[in-house]
Amino acid sequence: MAPVTRQAILEDLRERIRRIERRPSHREGFLPSGRPEVDALLPGGGFPRGALSHLAGGPASGKTGLALEILAAALREGGLAAFVDGRGELYPPAAESLGIDLERMLVVRVTGDAATGLWAAEAVLASGAFAAAAIDVPVSRLPAARGEAMLRRVQMAAEKGGAVGLWLGPAEGGRIPAAVRLDLAGAPRPERIRARGQAGPGGGHAA
Question: pTM score, two decimals?
Answer without folding.
Answer: 0.82
